[in-house]
Write a structure and sequence with these properties.
This protein is of the alpha/beta class. Helix content is 35%, strand content 19%. The chain contains 9 helices and 6 strands. It is globular.
Length: 251
């Protein structure tokens, strides 16, 4: 792939990251049927912590399971190439809304704008399937970039920086933070990390802090992707964040 082809391709990629929380602050707030299902699910999790009380893992672990969690924000970013200025602009924004269905509807509208290539770190095992499940639970039809059923592997336009780093070694798991350190990319873990999202959301009620963390992960993922595709000439990188989530990124 020539440098020109790479940068043309780069503009088609939508980098994303999702942040999730448990559906409710406490297990008792779930409807009884879902409470019963969680306790069954938790039995499998509690093999690691057999002495924990039934239901005690809900607050810490429910958010990673789409059936018991919810998406509280989606961060996205995409590159615009300014060849005359030898510059890359990375435009980011965050979708967040108190109502998950409204949030996902807004994100759905962006995904329906064009045939994006989606890229996330561990996206194939977490972000993409979680988005699909929560959209369907909320009664939202899957947008074209998330429709993978019946498609051949090469027809699915999903990239995953963790998958790219494996180079075929499917036993190999690498944290985003480790790759950032390897490539000397500034950390995204200033303020909070993923284990603190539920507490920040429910106890501190600080969605803004979570949004900033989410957007930092998006930026780090994009920088890692660039580092995995070194070019002969280095271009200046400018980060532009759209504050108003109602405004969609221009193509």
């Amino acid at each position: 792939m020539t440098m020109a082809d790479f940068f043309d391709h780069l503009g088609e990629i939508l980098f994303l990251d999702i942040e999730t929380a448990s559906q409710t602050e406490s297990l008792e707030e779930l409807n009884p049927r879902m409470q019963e299902e969680w306790l069954k699910k938790e039995k499998l999790i509690r093999t690691e912590n057999p002495d924990r009380e039934p239901g005690s893992l809900y607050f810490d672990r429910a958010g990673i399971h789409a059936e018991f969690g919810q998406i509280i924000c989606v961060g996205v970013g995409f590159f615009q190439v300014k060849k005359k200025e030898n510059k890359l602009q990375f435009r980011t924004k965050v979708f967040s809304h108190p109502d998950e269905k409204e949030l996902l509807s807004e994100f759905h509208a962006l995904l329906s704008k064009k045939k994006w290539i989606l890229c996330a770190h561990n996206g194939k095992e977490f972000d993409f399937p979680y988005l699909c499940r929560r959209m369907l639970i909320q009664g939202i039809a899957l947008p074209e970039p998330l429709q993978i059923s019946g498609r051949k592997p090469w027809e699915v336009r999903h990239l995953d920086t963790m998958d790219l780093w494996r180079f075929g070694d499917y036993k190999y798991y690498t944290r985003l933070e480790l790759l950032a350190a390897v490539f000397n990319i500034p950390t995204s873990k200033e303020g909070i990390d993923g284990s603190e999202v539920n507490t920040t959301f429910y106890k501190e009620k600080d969605l803004g802090k979570i949004e900033k963390y989410c957007l930092r992960d998006v930026e780090v993922t994009a920088r890692i992707f660039l580092a995995m595709h070194p070019q002969p000439e280095e271009m200046e990188l400018e980060i532009i964040t759209t504050e108003d989530s109602k405004k969609e990124p221009k193509e």
